[in-house]
């Protein structure tokens, strides 16, 4: 897909897709609750539909409205179907981690399988944690999918787990903790990465009526409790919002995000603070966000290195934006990006080098130089590999609106989290 250049300043209102992070958590918690939960404005994407299908295989009845604007979940209080079950996860890493943990609540065998890069993403710390609480796990190679889980007859109530690989492991354990007979104490070894995603989990658990004792992200204690069903509403996805914030930063004008405001607990909202430091102006009320481009029409240089350790999903947006930032931009704290749908340090570096940008990488950082002279007027098309990664496609599409010479390969990959991305982008062009 050839990305057309945006030549005018922007003046648009955007309704973002529902937060994928919140949608997936709501589906898990609603399945663990007793009774009916209606989820309004969920993220309609591949990951959501795969989670719905997998929960259905576990015996949870979920009905979607014709326009997929509402999901109705009949929770069973932590009781699932009996007998062996096979769950096909597609490419959803978050669903994989959540369902691996959920499967330990069943004494029968649950086999979880993915496809493509999902089968290369690490799960060993989570599998080890499930074994600590009494579960049995089998993995073909080092904790990667496919895996098989069998729940125990008797659960231990304490677990220790390394915090430096993925916060999803902790969210997965936290969500099942109230359903364990003795609750669960989770002890964190080392520093816990991506804490804002833990905050989302704790916030959604609280909405479902469950309290968690959080000892400064070093220890979590969850007593046995019952999740409460009821109506829920999903706000806009802050990770998706990063693309429109970057667009208005580089093109000027104004974008109004109608369904994301100051009340959000999503960590990727901090991307807007980064945009402010680069020259944008941001105003928020509880439900809505207004982003305006720099008054002088130019992106300002970063005055210091930018730590994206707590906003891993928005970090790739910043990497793709960086060639338009004066000077060399250093982005640090991104070691977890190497374990996403693709290596989100080396893969974007390779694509930026195709357009002549100087890039230096390390295990937890990337340094990106400016676009070379003439790059903004180039006429030769450059193919951008997406590595089956939705965020590679969307982030480089944003850069393409300035260059006008980028051909995004495999554009359908955006369906993983944002199927209507190309339609929404076209409205701005």
Record the SSE blueprint.
Blueprint lengths: L9 E5 L5 H13 L1 E7 L5 H12 L3 E4 L5 E7 L8 E4 L4 H11 L6 E4 L10 H9 L3 E6 L2 E7 L7 E5 L4 H10 L7 E6 L5 H13 L5 E3 L3 E4 L9 E2 L4 H14 L1 E5 L13 H7 L3 E4 L4 E4 L13 E2 L4 H10 L7 E4 L13 H9 L4 E3 L3 E4 L13 E3 L5 H14 L2 E3 L12 H8 L1
Parallel strand pairs: 1-14, 2-13, 5-6, 9-10, 17-18, 21-22
Antiparallel strand pairs: 2-4, 3-4, 6-8, 7-8, 10-12, 11-12, 14-16, 15-16, 18-20, 19-20
The end-to-end span amounts to 14 Å
Q: Estimate what percentage of residues fall within beta strands.
A: 15-25%
Largest sheet: 4 strands, mixed
The beta-strand count equals 22
Q: State Rg.
A: 21 Å
Mean pLDDT across every amino acid position: 95
Strand order of the largest sheet: 1-14-16-15
User: Uncertain segments of ≥5 residues (pLDDT<50)?
Assistant: none
Helix content: 25-40%
**Total number of helices:** 12
The rough form would be described as globular
Structural class: alpha/beta
Oligomer: single chain
Give an overview of the whole structure.
It is built from twelve helices and 22 strands. Helix 1 (20-32) packs parallel to helix 3 (93-103), helix 1 (20-32) crosses helix 6 (195-207) and helix 7 packs parallel to helix 11. The strands form six sheets. The protein has a four-stranded mixed β-sheet, covered by helices on one side. The chain has a four-stranded mixed β-sheet with strand order 3-4-2-13, covered by helices on one side. The protein has a four-stranded mixed β-sheet with strand order 5-6-8-7. Helix 9 links the parallel strand 17 and strand 18. With 429 residues, the protein is an alpha/beta fold.
